[in-house]
Structure formats: structure tokens, C-alpha cells
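P.,

For your records, the input lines for the assembly:
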Amino acid sequence: MGDGFVPNPGRSGVTRAAPAAYTECVSDVADAQDFSAAAETHLDDVYRYLLYVTANPSTAEDLTSETFERALGRWSSFDPRRGTAQTWLFQLARGAALDHFRAEERRRRREERVAEPDRVAEHELPDEYGPVLRQALRTLSGADREVIALRIVLELDAKTAARVLNISASACTTRLNRALERLEQKVRPRLVA
Amino acid sequence: MSPDLATALRAETPSAPDALRDRIAVITATPPAPRRTLSLRRVLMVAAPAAAAASLVAAVAVGVKAGVEDQAGHKATAPRALIPPQMLAPTAESGQLRMPRRAATPEAAKNAFAPPTAAPARKRAQDVRTSITLLVDDTNDLSATTQRALRITRNLGGYVQTVNFGSQTGEGTAALEVRIPVSRVQAAVVRFSELGRILAQQTQITDLQQRLDDLTRQIRRTGDPGRRAQLRHTRSELNRRAAYATLLLDLTTHEPQAKVVPPSRIDRAVDDAAGVLGAELAVIAYALIVASPFLVLLAAAFGGRRAYRRYSDLRLLERA
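C-alpha cells returned:
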């Protein structure tokens, strides 16, 4: 509404009812502000989640960008009554990550026909990442990292995390316990030391 | 899980780099797509009640229209055919009393009989005519009943004027016209009524006393012997009419058609509307029955696809 589009008061000075176009314009501006605020608030969470899922910072960045592009296009379908913007963004991020993995798998299959694929390069992390995270990203599967990211790092409750993972809350808890058990077996000696 | 591990994981997880923030800022600078005002759910929430209301309105409209047309049709074809001719005959003579009694249905006929409430007056000359229509079982019963009716007539001191008996292919009718002394006409009606199931009964009493009194006065006044003889003859004729009642007994083996009471306009409209609604429900039920196997297969395919997708996603993440 930055162009000075305001409703004209009538001759009597009584403000008439806002026209539909004005209401729509205000609604669009509010939506844009909502989306910007949601993106600003949840950017780090989405990036962290995707970093755990992909175990690759550059891929995580790309997928974060892809997630917010998707969110921009689908913002009109977001219904706050059905869940928070954070949950919705995580669902979009998960979809983007899965699409990425599928595409990668197809690409890998194509490459396998002609040469041995190089899988190690994907998990090479820079030194700025801490030892626990490096160990976690290196040794755990994507599914384990995903549930740890949601429940431990991002501190979502079981119900919300289960909704993102599209499974039941009890299944989410079970998956988390198994993932933590595997992680602890790997990193406990290092922590103790 | 140890708190140290959780703390370490949270502490070591980096935030989004500045380059990524810049990229996201570019994305968020673009206004999002306008919010759809008509979502599928909203359309369904409006369309479903609208469709139900439309079907209801259509049913009511069809019902009202059909009701009006039926009413016009009923007026054009009034059920005169169900009414016996004697009931429709106009009464020309003054002072006569008609007491039609009809039992259109067999159930009603069981309770229909009762002796005529207006019995002939004993002190006045009256012309009494009664007609009774009785249903008998078959032609054998028709013959036996006819004979019993003749015996009853003779026993009551009456006589038979005409008998018309006919039967054909298991069905038949008999029409008896008997004269019964007026003093015993009620007994005759009772006994005739016991011969079968009453389908219709009518009693017509015409007062003759006034005409007899007039004739008597004219006989006294007239001086012409020829005219007096003629008047006396007329008076004796009237006395004979008044002495005997005419009883028309119709016996038939034809089961009467149930009397169709034409429903009211509102009833017809409601019936037609209910019929249309019923037809609509039948069509929906038919469609559901036909489509249900496909719907079940579709739901199973959808559920299976979701489960497979979930499984494949998990496998994909486990390999990642």
C-alpha cells in the first residue's frame, strides 16, 4: 500500500466502506509481510534442518533457497489453522530434500553405468564444524540425522516433528531413540575424552 | 541421551551463512502469490449444501407442478364410474327421502350393514324403494343365493316381479325386483343383507299420503261418476304402491374396485416431492453402489501409494 492508495472519505466526512480492491491490496501486503517475517524467523531453523539431512553445507544452502522459493509460490495455500509456519516450512524443506535425493540417485545410477561414483565427497565438511556434529553427520544415516535435528537441535516436540516426518508421534520417538543410541555409541568416547 | 551431547549438537550447529541470507532476502522481496479466495474446500463447503438445496427445491417444484396437473386431471375425470347409477339418478318427486349407503371396500362393507334408519311410517302411505347390492363368492353361490332370496320373498308375503340371472366364465350377476309388504320391508332388508357382503345399499321413501288425501277430497267433491271412478282407480293404484315396497336386489360375483380417494393437492405435492427426492437418493445410491468397488480400489491404491512413498522416502534418507 505504499503508493498512497487510501479510501476516499465521502462528502459528509464519513469514511465509506473500503472497496474490494483496497481490501485485497491490504491483504496482499499483509501476506507479503507475513511471509518475510516467517522467512526471517525460520531461516536458520530450515538451514540447520537441511544441513543435518543432507550433511552438506552447500547443498543445504541450495535446498534452503529452494525451500523458500517453494514457500513463496505456495504461501497462499498456507493455512495457519492447520499448523505453524515453521512446521509448514520444514515440510517444504523435507520435500525439497527428498526431491534432491531422488535426483541424485537417478544421477548416480546413470553414472554407475559408466564409472564408479564418488560418494565420499558429499560428506566432506569444513573444519569450522565441531567434532560432535562432524561425527554425527559422518556416521549416521540421513533418517537418523533428520530426527535428531528436529527433536534435539531444533527442539520440536514429538507431535510437531512427527507431522514433519509424516509419521506417528510414537514412531517418531522410537526413531529418535534408535538414532540417539547409535550416535552415542560413536561420540561418547570423544565426549568423555 | 546425555545433556552434553544435546548441548554440543546445538552449539556446534551453525546458523545460515550471510550469502544464504542474501539469497533469501532476494526471494522474500518478491511479493507472494495472491491468496486464493476460493479454495477447493471452500467451494465444496458451498457447493454441497447448494446442491442439496437445489435438489430439494427441484423436488418441491416438481411436486407442486405435478400436484396442480393431477388436480386438473382429477377434475376432468371425476370418479363417477365408481358410483352406481341409482345413486346418481336425480330425485324428481318431492318429499322423498334417499339414504344411499355404499361400502366401497370389502373391509368397509363388513361394517356397512345396518337396517335403514328411516323406517316407513305405519300411519302414512309411502312408496318405499330399496336397492341392495351384494357380493357373493362364485356362480354356484350366486344361484343358491338367488333361490334363497326368492324363498325369503315368499316367506315374507311378497312376490317376485322380475328376475334377471346371468353367469359366464365363472362370474355372474343376478338382478331381482321383488315386492315386499311395507310392514316387513325392514325384516326383508335384514335377511337379504345376510345373503352376502353388502357392496351398496340405498333406500328411497316417497310420501304418497298427501296425494291420497287430495284424491279422496276430489272424489268427494266431484259429481261426475266417470271422473269419480277414474279417481278411485288412481287412489287404489296408489294404495297398492303404498302397500308393497319395491326391493331391488343385485347379486354379483365381481369384486368391487377399491375406492380411490383422490388425495389433496398438498398431499399430492408432498408425495411427488418425496418421490423426486426418493428418485434422487436412488440415483445417488445406485451411483455409490456401482462406484463403491472402484472407490475402494482407488482408496486402497491411494493408501498403498502413500505407504510406499513413505517407505521409499525413509529408505532414501537412510541411504543419504
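Two observations worth noting. Helices of chain A lie at 20-54, 57-74, 85-112, 131-139, 142-153, 158-165, 169-192. Residues 63 and 77 of chain A are 20 Å apart (CA to CA).

Regards
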